[in-house]
Amino acid sequence: MSTKIFKHIQTPVVPLAIENIDTDQIIPARFLKATTRDGFGNNLFRDWRFDENDHPKPDFVLNNPTYSGKVLVAGKNFGCGSSREHAAWAIADYGFDAVVSSFFADIFKGNALNNGLLPVQVSDDFLQKIFDAVAADHTAEVEIDLENQFIKISATGEQESFEVNPYKKACMINGYDDIDYILSQKNKIEEFEEVR
Amino acid sequence: MGQTLFDKIWDAHVVSSAEGFPDILYIDTHFIHEVTSPQAFDGLRKRGLPVFRPQQTVATADHNVPTWDQHLPIKEELSRYQVDMLTKNCKEFGIELYGLGHPYQGIVHVIGPELGITRPGGTYVCGDSHTSTHGAFGAIAFGIGTSQVEQVLATQCLLQSRPKRMKIEVNGKLQNGVGPKDIILYIIAQISAAGGTGYAVEYAGDTIRSLSMEGRMTICNMSIEMGARCGLIAPDETTINYVKGREFAPKGEEWDKAVAYWQTLYSDEDAEFDSVLTFRAEDIEPMITYGTNPGMGIGVTQHVPETASFDVKEQVSYKKALDYMGLHDDETLLGKPIDYVFIGSCTNSRIEDLRQVAEFVKGKHKADNVTVWVVPGSKQVQEQAIREGLDKIFDAAGFPLREPGCSACLGMNEDKIPAGKYCVSTSNRNFEGRQGPNSRTFLASPLTAAASAITGKVTDIREFLKEEELV
Ligand code: SF4
């Protein structure tokens, strides 16, 4: 099976300058009862986005029509907490292709990569530069190039390179799938089981 | 050069390793539950694959289940559907299910150890971040996402890059009333909710060594709350005695062989860690959290930090957390009225936790303003508590003993803390809305939770214990 392909994007961003955004905020537990992978985007950041009567809260960034784009930019330690992959599904389902932060929680990072959602880890300074650029002009765009591993603020031309596991990079660029890869070594698994 | 405990176990499970690729790691047991597995089974169906090693997969229903009247059909439709789906999937793919009504049912991280499935030297995964609990046995155990659940179902292996290693030592004698939960909340408060990210953490030192298996599980359970991949503690006599004789523990010759191997599982003297931290047990007070991540914890007599003490960039998030909690700079939590007390979750719902709470509340009664829920971690814990008469003590104190499940730890069933209410909780997360929309959580130990239930406000357990010594 192949997964979603990611190579290069240029897009405005949605800024969310909050730190330690945990997966319970991204998708609260009460919305984890679905048994398919679809539709989680409707409940992305549910309790920040809607009040208890399901009315949109006007001051939350996703409800502000000024901001749009395929990249979510968030404060450090993004995606901490629960291992729920539903968090990555919700962000991707909402329409984001990448999340930029100065620090990601491990499990979230892995889950995102497994769903064609690129986590881009930048320095604190560069993160601030993106926030500043969007504050100056809400249509400010960033360019993310996975092949060459850099992120650039289009208006100023400032750029920074980012790390990504080479295997995962190949998977995202080519749409490879982990299970196919492991199953290609099934004989090794069986050997391992015999000799251990 | 010597090896760390973590590397010894990891190396013994590498199926294949190639430059530039994550390792293919063999998984001894895969635990699954109703919430993070349905999409994985769907994936298998789409690929036309069977479960590769169904005998090494163990299922239970815990996250969604009611904790009252479990013999009746689940009322909430979506929860019922999800639990039914698990039953159907387990049947179709040949997996043993400890579902509702089964004597082994319970929170996945409570049943693995108590059934002797979790053992030293093993590798365990589950679509739940608190899988780190099982590391208390000297095992590698971590939480995974649903795509990885599918991966392990399909291959019994996981693609994983080796994390860095951290050693956290705690030495010295704990104050009276301070326990494992306080130790781990203290460590997380010191190093922050992200301080362990990228690491496998080995806990060591004489304080850790002196803990029971239950206590060690409490510590390893919360490794993920500092961002760590997993936590582990070298096995010793305490570990071996705990595993011995349990349902699925090795028997006879197998047992002797296993123990001989387990005795080789420790970090060599000259093993190198990427980071080493040391703490003094004497410095640890009963802990309580005041904010919206587990790193925001203080000793129960301390004051909430001032916003100005944080970096300007961090102040927005900090203020947001205090506003959510209805607290202000420099406030003291001691004496703050509370509404709920939750004693449960995979952090603190084992028989030892219930015994400790029962011993403390015997002859006391909860305050009128507080609702108390005691939720055992498993059917076995519940039955044991009843056999020991703990349920009667709880009843008399106004602490009804419910039925096993995750319950108010994440509020997926009907056990939700209402909006704006304060709950002293023995669970592991104080995130916004974790225990119910707009609920406010103070994380603490079972003793602190019990004492707070009695007085109706945040309480320093040490004051209680002093008084009791006097009478
Ligand atoms: S008790 Fe809470 S933390 Fe533990 S497995 Fe259940 S939901 Fe997760």
Explain this structure:
The complex is a heterodimer of chains A (about 200) and B (about 475). Chain A has about 200 residues and is of the alpha/beta class. Chain A has one domain: Aconitase, domain 4, CATH 3.20.19. Chain A is built from 8 helices and 7 strands; from the N terminus they run E-H-H-E-H-E-H-E-H-E-E-E-H-H-H. The radius of gyration of chain A is 18 Å and the shape is globular. Chain A has a 7-stranded mixed beta sheet with strand order 4-3-2-1-5-6-7. Chain B is of the alpha/beta class and about 475 residues long. Chain B has 2 domains: about 5-275, Aconitase, domain 3; about 290-465, 2-Layer Sandwich (Aconitase, domain 3). Chain B is built from 16 helices and 18 strands. In chain B, the strands form 5 sheets. In chain B, strands 5-4-3-6-7 form a 5-stranded parallel beta sheet. Chain B has a 4-stranded parallel beta sheet with strand order 11-10-9-12. A 4-stranded parallel beta sheet of chain B has the order 16-15-17-18, with helices on one face. The longest helix of chain B has 17 residues, at about 75-95. Chain B is globular and about 55 Å long. Chain B starts with a helix and ends with a helix. The mean pLDDT of chain B is about 95. Chains A and B meet through helix 4, helix 7 and helix 8 of A and helix 2, helix 3, helix 5 and helix 11 of B. Iron/sulfur cluster (SF4) binds next to loops of chain B.
Essential attributes:
heterodimer, A: 196 residues, alpha/beta, Aconitase, domain 4, seven-stranded mixed β-sheet, B: Aconitase, domain 3, Aconitase, domain 3, five-stranded parallel β-sheet, binds iron/sulfur cluster, Acoase/IPM_deHydtase_lsu_aba (chain B), 4 iron, 4 sulfur cluster binding (chain B), 3-isopropylmalate dehydratase activity (chain B)
